[in-house]
């Protein structure tokens, strides 16, 4: 699906991401964790083709994107859905209209698809409600359904549970697992919440200062807190 080979992204004279090498397999669930300023947001922009690498190359579906035309990159972007921390819903549109918006933009209305997704995220009784009438968890479920409406191959989640309480976080995690299982969608989950990646992700990439420190296989064992380095804390949390 994705292959990053010694990818770096520099703004002015400072590297936001440096010498990043990673392969993300189709149908996998991968976590990207790191403290604030570790380079997670820049990496997400690279994966979403909003930014181009300064050095190295990104290979997507066995094709290097560095020299790809804008038309080809637009086609790649169509394969990607995004879920944001702050939902990014339009307040003047109801639930149905927010979910249908990506289809409306490309003049491809599909009422059956929209209603199917409303049912999938459990908001049948909220279809005509507006964002101001929804809880945070309900807003994120709308955002999730909207990201799926164009049948993406990849779902990029940017701190998708950071604004939610424990119960709503568990709901979103279950939905993401179902999405991965039922639709075989590759999920890349960017977060600072170790408890979430422990429950959701098959492998966890640890970032610090723009670099990939380690890739940890998730064994789903119980964890104990410690006062060691960030990387050691992540390893202990994920591996037990």
From TrEMBL:
SUPFAM superfamilies: P-loop containing nucleoside triphosphate hydrolases. Pfam families: ABC_tran. Keywords: Amino-acid transport, ATP-binding, Cell membrane, Membrane, Nucleotide-binding, Translocase, Transport. The keyword Transferase does not apply. It comes from the Bacteria. GO terms for molecular function: ATP binding. It comes from Mammaliicoccus vitulinus. This is ATP-binding cassette domain-containing protein.
């Amino acid at each position: 699906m994705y292959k990053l080979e010694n990818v770096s992204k520099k703004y002015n004279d400072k590297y936001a991401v440096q010498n990043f090498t990673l392969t993300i397999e189709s149908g996998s669930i991968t976590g990207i964790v790191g403290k604030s300023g570790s380079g997670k947001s820049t990496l997400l922009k690279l994966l979403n083709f909003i930014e181009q690498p300064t050095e190295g190359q990104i290979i997507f579906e066995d094709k290097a994107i560095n020299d790809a035309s804008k038309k080809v990159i637009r086609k790649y972007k169509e394969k990607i859905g995004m879920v944001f921390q702050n939902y990014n819903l339009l307040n003047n549109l109801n639930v149905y209209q927010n979910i249908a918006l990506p289809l409306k933009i490309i003049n491809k209305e599909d009422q059956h698809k929209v209603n199917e997704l409303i049912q999938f995220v459990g908001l049948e009784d909220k279809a005509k409600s507006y964002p101001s009438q929804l809880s945070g968890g309900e807003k994120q479920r709308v955002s999730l359904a909207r990201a799926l409406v164009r049948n993406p191959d990849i779902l990029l989640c940017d701190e998708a549970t950071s604004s939610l309480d424990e119960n709503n976080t568990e709901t979103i995690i279950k939905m993401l697992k179902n999405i991965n299982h039922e639709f075989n969608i590759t999920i890349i989950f960017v977060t600072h919440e170790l408890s979430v990646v422990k429950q959701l992700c098959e492998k966890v990439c640890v970032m610090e200062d723009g670099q990939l420190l380690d890739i940890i296989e998730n064994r789903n064992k119980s964890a104990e807190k410690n006062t060691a380095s960030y990387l050691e804390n992540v390893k202990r949390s994920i591996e037990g």
